[in-house]
Structures are given as structure tokens and as C-alpha cells.
Amino acid sequence: MPDAGPFDTTAFVVGQPKRSKWRRYRGPALTVTTVEGTELARVTHADDSRSLLTTSSGAFVVRIDRHTRFGQFGPVRFRFTDAAGEETGTVTARGLVKTRQLCLRTEGGRPLLLTRLGQLYREWQLTETDPEEVPAPVVLGRVTVSTIDAWIGLQQYLVETDPALDASERRTVIASVVCLHLLRRPPGEGSAVG
Predict the structure, then answer these.
(1) Of 154, 160, 141, the residue nearest 192 (C-alpha)
(2) Separation between Cα atoms, residue 57 and residue 51, nearest integer Å
(3) Residues with Cβ within 8 Å of residue 21, at least 6 apart in sequence
(4) What are 17-48's pLDDT values in tens digits?
């Protein structure tokens, strides 16, 4: 996809929109905003294995399909496709603690890793190689998770990327944060799993 849409900035917030615990919520599952709060995109879940990322005006950005062979115990692969059905990126999560490290592949074929250094950390680092290798790799971005409503358990992810990433690579990073959220809180689930 040559046009990256709203992903020209380097910092984003991906989060669950605020809602009432007492009323049925019918809005998007997640929104992508600037740090200042301007909405750029929305994520809706078509079902448990498919999500759609659209601009705030409703234009299609990418479809996120989830594939797993052995349920919660096997690896999970997410595939990103454009409106023509062409693959624009992937994310793979392995192991029992699937949110420790996500392996990303951008539309241009660039491999990236989104890694949490420990189970108690709220920050994931975006690098080209494993952050535990010596010498330490260059950090191309960070994703920091926080709870914005403890009563309902709404999550928010602050995504900061290096200016050297192009807009299509940032689109892959945003889609991977959606995948991270889906691994931590599958549609219809109330509690975090990772």
C-alpha cells in the first residue's frame, strides 16, 4: 500500500475508548489517536479471528487475521492484508507467554521484534534484533501499556517510534499493537492473559 494514511506522525496512542460499565458499548474496540487526542483510526472486531483497522472517516487501512493451530498452547500468527487482499505484514507470537516477544515483518519484508524484557515490565521495545543480545540493538520504538480505567480495566498503549521508520512500517507497528492487545485481551474477555 503506497499511501500510509494517518501514520505520518511518530507517536500514537492505541486504546480502548472510555465507556460506561452500566450500558452496552457499541463503539470501536480500539482507537488510534495522536498523543494530543485527535482520532486517526479505529479497530473493530468482525469476529474472534478477524479485526479491521480503518481511518476515523471509515476508509479501509488493513485487515488483521488471526491464525492458530493448537489453540492457546500453540503459536499465533497474525496476517495483515490490504483492500486487494495483498499481504502487508505479519506478526508471530510463540510460547506460553505469547506477549513476551512478537516477531513482525513489514510490508517491505523488514523483520522487527517487539519485546518485553520481563513479565512485570509495562514497556515493550521495538528492535531489529533481540534486546538481550550483546551488543544491545538500537531501539526503534517503545510501546508502554497503562490502565486508564481500573474499574472496567480499559487498556491504553503509548506507541513511540523512531523518525527513521517510514509510514508503512509505523502502520505495521500499530497493527502489531492491536495484535498485542488481542493476545492480552481477546474479544469478549474481561481480563488480561499476558
Answers:
(1) 154
(2) 17
(3) 151, 152
(4) 987 777 788 889 999 999 999 999 999 988 88
